[in-house]
Design brief:
Elements lengths: L60 E2 L6 E2 L25 E2 L16 E2 L6 E2 L15 H6 L6 H33 L8 H23 L3 H6 L1 E5 L7 H18 L1 H9 L9 H6 L1 E5 L4
Antiparallel strand pairs: 1-2, 3-4, 4-5, 6-7
Helix pairs in contact: 2-3, 5-6
Length: 289
């Protein structure tokens, strides 16, 4: 046996040539061709315009809210003739449409789906607030506006406010009656009605001053609750005076059922009375101070 490289004689069983050091070719493992890499599965391309977000998927319609072309992956309910895209799903007319190309303020990698009606920031669908009174708000603004006030705190605050208006009138009338009896003043009875009106105006003036100073009535200030707009914005004074008080009280005088309905609506899921719906308001808890 001879080395195939240098021709030196080799003994039986020798694996390498002692002269040139090359291994015998018949002892080397056979070389096999490397396996070919697996081929990527071919994406079936459907005829027609293609979705830019999902290659190979044909467009089936337009989202009725944002107007962009969608495929069945963009709009999962397309089979039921609902082409609302996943970015717009769950949004309502209260969610102002964000401009094209806008990005979410909290998630810059996501496209903005709406504009928060309170802070005006761009927000994606994941930032949408849920729950009664949070329509059109981002999650941060819904949290900032505070939880809804309890029914018991609203009842006690209303009771205190009514006493604040009525108590001065009662004190003035009772004081006038006592003074007239002690001093034996004549025609004191004729002064009772004017004195009562003056007392009521004094109480109403105190409530108005509290509302202008704190944005809360006396009762709501003591119970740490506050009236705000449904979207969390501060409520205008005229809405409190006219829509939340005068209109509903006048209507209740004309039809007693109105006052009953106004009171019973607070037991609904949104905890809003009839005057809250008229004034576009809700009552929330606020920090004491």
């Amino acid at each position: 046996m001879y080395c195939e490289f240098c021709g030196s004689s080799l003994d039986e069983g020798v694996l390498a040539c002692p002269v040139c050091g090359n291994a015998r070719s018949d002892t080397l493992p056979s070389r096999r061709a490397a396996p070919a890499p697996p081929r990527a599965p071919e994406v079936e391309v459907m005829p027609g315009p293609q979705c830019p977000q999902h290659p190979g998927m044909p467009l089936v319609g337009k989202c009725p809210r944002c107007g962009r072309e969608v495929c069945v992956r963009c709009a999962p309910e397309a089979a039921f003739d609902d082409f609302t895209c996943t970015d717009c799903k769950g949004l309502t007319q209260a969610h102002a449409l964000a401009p094209a190309g806008a990005q979410c303020a909290l998630h810059p990698q996501a496209a903005a789906a709406f504009i928060c009606s309170r802070c005006g920031s761009f927000a994606c669908n994941a930032c949408r607030a849920f729950g009664a009174g949070s329509e059109g708000l981002c999650a941060r603004c819904a949290t900032a506006s505070g939880p809804l006030a309890s029914r018991s705190s609203r009842f006690l605050a209303n009771l205190i406010d009514n006493l604040a208006v009525a108590l001065p009138a009662i004190l003035v009338v009772v004081g006038g009656a006592i003074l007239g009896s002690v001093a034996k003043l004549k025609r004191v009875d004729e002064l009772m009605i004017p004195l009562g009106v003056m007392g009521a105006l004094l109480g109403a003036g105190a409530e108005l001053a509290a509302q202008m100073s704190w944005g809360q009535s006396i009762g709501k200030r003591l119970l740490a609750i506050k009236v705000v707009r449904l979207n969390g914005d501060p409520i205008e004074l005229w809405r409190v005076i006219v829509l939340r008080n005068l209109v509903i009280h006048f209507a209740a005088q004309l039809c007693g059922i109105v006052g009953l309905v106004d009171a019973l609506l607070i037991f609904g899921a949104e905890q809003r009375c009839l005057h809250d719906y008229l004034a576009d308001s809700k009552v929330i808890e606020v920090p004491r101070g």
